[in-house]
Structures are given as C-alpha cells and as structure tokens.
Amino acid sequence: MKEDISLEEQVERIRRKRAQRYDGSKVRTILNMLFLVLAAIGLAMYFFGGENHVPALFVIAAGMLFKMVEFILRFL
C-alpha cells in the first residue's frame, strides 16, 4: 500500500515540474524590445522621412508582427 505524501513533498513535486517547463520570458522580452525599436524607427521615418510614408509603414508592420508573436507566446 502506498503511503500518503506530505503536503511539503507535494508542493516540492509541483515546483520541480514547473521548473522543467519551458520559460519563454526571455524570448518574449527580446521580441518586445524588437517591437519597440521598430516602432520608434518607423515613427521617426514616418514623421521625418518626407512625403513617401510607405517604407515607414512597412517598418511599423514588421514591428507589429513581432508584437503579435510575443502576444501569442504569452498564452502558450
């Protein structure tokens, strides 16, 4: 017959299991920093780049792609 496991042992088992899971916080931080840099560059290009705003919008859109990936990784 199996003995009952104490509460401390159960908590320690849960902690070990959680520690083995993938922690994506570093990846999310890098993706968020890329988003912020591309957004700042895109805004600077938009306001100081002259009449053609299309390249600036592409840079901002690339930054938004990084932000969407970061947002999805938050829930995985």
Description:
By secondary structure, the chain is an all-alpha fold. The chain has a domain at 22-74. It has helices spanning 7-20, 25-48, 54-74. The model has no long low-confidence stretch (mean pLDDT 89).
Keywords:
78% helix; 76 residues; 0% strand; rod-shaped; mainly alpha; single chain
**Structural class designation:** mainly alpha
Mean pLDDT: 89
Largest sheet: none
N→C terminal distance = 38 Å
Number of helices: 3
User: Helicity range of the residues?
Assistant: over 70%
Succession of helices and strands = HHH
Q: In percent, how much strand structure appears in the residues? A: under 5%
Give the total of beta strands.
0
Inertia-based shape: rod-shaped
List segments where confidence is low: pLDDT < 50 over at least 5 consecutive residues: none
- Rg result: 22 Å
Secondary-structure blueprint:
Blueprint: H1 7-20, H2 25-48, H3 54-74
Sum this structure up briefly.
The chain is mainly α and 76 residues long. Helices cover 78% and strands 0% of the residues. The chain has a domain at 22-74.
